Backbone:
């Protein structure tokens, strides 16, 4: 049995869901043993407890003999989204410990944090979670050709649905959203999208997600005369199937610069038989087949029109939802994810363990780690590169306050804003 040691910053949110699903489902196949090392304690321990209930080993970095665990691994898999602790881990270990290295990116890399060619070249196997990653405009033509040869695409779906969710009888027309509520993920004009459909009779917008990250969104909703009484913030939910049973449509307008890849909430909605309405952008355009498994729109006006059409054409909405469910369950079920990963692991076993020149890929100090996924002038940071988290300069400085260059970059940008 192949032993794969995962290195992940934590087991929260989407990454916790996908890694726990993979590790648990792999116990059925009995081809791969998954061991998980988290680099910091996860705030919500749900997925960690779930893994332990299935006798899957989960270690915290500072409470285990990490070097020995890495040496005993057949494959070391870094689950990457440019977290500061992941950069520190790679810097501290990969120049000294021989291993077979797989890096699985859980961000698209087409916006910050960017995936640079040097990082792809460093790994023995690099995996994208979406074909959208190939649209990275910062690679040269030669690099793009090499990337096409080197990289696998495995949509990181944790879907274990086997059929559409049975709908709960409810009053009105429910348009649901599940996910991160910060404007770094939701569209900055999210409220305007809702307003475009506010005149639909009996419409209700059910927004599911941790409201601690949605204060700005909540404020904007409260300031909207058109939708303030039509939006319900339901908070974080572990059992999303219950939520999908109440949704008629899944409205999912995301920030055009969002960093997401598989968009697990979108895939789960489709698997549940809830028709998605998404923007013609990023990874969404690869996941939804227009008018077959959902509706792709190009503007706020088209979004409102799509919700209106789906309300007025219930039979077609149900048919489209069934198509979406069949597509995701057939093509993107967790068994397919596990089978594709297992093929990667088996292929890697023919290679010898080796050292990896990680310094050339990410640098040797926190400032260099940060800019290894950034393009542009560091004195003009914006968006996710200067958010509070998401692998931003401020995020890196919070973990490495002793880095003087990084501190100067943050202070320069704060004085500019």
Residues:
């Amino acid at each position: 049995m192949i032993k794969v040691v995962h290195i992940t910053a934590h087991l929260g949110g989407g990454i916790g869901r996908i890694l726990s699903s993979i590790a648990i489902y792999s116990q059925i196949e009995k081809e791969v043993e998954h061991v998980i090392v988290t680099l910091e304690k996860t705030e919500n321990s749900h997925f960690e407890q779930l893994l332990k209930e299935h006798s899957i080993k989960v270690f915290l970095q500072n409470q285990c003999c990490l070097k020995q665990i890495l040496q005993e691994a057949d494959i070391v898999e870094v689950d990457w989204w440019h977290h500061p602790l992941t950069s520190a881990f790679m810097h501290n270990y990969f120049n000294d410990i021989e291993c077979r290295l797989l890096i699985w990116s859980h961000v698209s890399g087409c916006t910050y944090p960017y995936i640079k060619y040097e990082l792809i070249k460093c790994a023995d196997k690099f995996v994208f979670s979406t074909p959208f990653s190939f649209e990275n405009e910062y690679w040269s033509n030669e690099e793009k050709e090499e990337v096409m040869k080197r990289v696998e695409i495995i949509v990181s779906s944790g879907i274990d649905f086997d059929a559409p969710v049975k709908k709960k009888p409810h009053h009105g027309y429910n348009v649901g959203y599940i996910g991160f509520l910060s404007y770094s993920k939701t569209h900055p004009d999210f409220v305007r999208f809702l307003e475009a459909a506010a005149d639909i009779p009996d419409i209700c917008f059910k927004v599911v997600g941790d409201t601690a990250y949605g204060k700005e969104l909540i404020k904007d909703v409260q300031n909207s005369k058109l939708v303030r009484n039509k939006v319900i913030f339901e908070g974080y939910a572990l059992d999303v199937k219950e939520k999908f049973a109440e949704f008629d449509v899944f409205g999912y307008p995301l920030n055009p610069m969002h960093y997401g890849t598989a968009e697990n909430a979108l895939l789960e909605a489709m698997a549940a038989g809830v028709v998605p309405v998404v923007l013609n952008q990023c990874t969404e355009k690869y996941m939804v087949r227009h008018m077959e498994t959902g509706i792709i729109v190009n503007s706020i006006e088209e979004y409102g029109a799509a919700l209106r059409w789906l309300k007025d054409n219930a039979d077609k909405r149900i048919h489209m939802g069934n198509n979406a469910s069949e597509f995701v369950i057939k093509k993107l079920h967790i068994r397919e994810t596990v089978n594709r990963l297992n093929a990667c692991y088996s292929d890697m076993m023919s290679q010898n363990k080796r050292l990896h020149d990680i310094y050339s890929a990410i640098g040797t100090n926190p400032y260099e780690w940060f800019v290894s996924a950034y393009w542009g002038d560091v004195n003009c940071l914006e968006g996710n590169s200067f958010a509070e988290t998401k692998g931003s300069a401020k995020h890196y400085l919070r973990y490495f306050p002793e880095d003087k260059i990084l501190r100067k970059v943050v202070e320069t940008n704060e004085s500019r804003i």
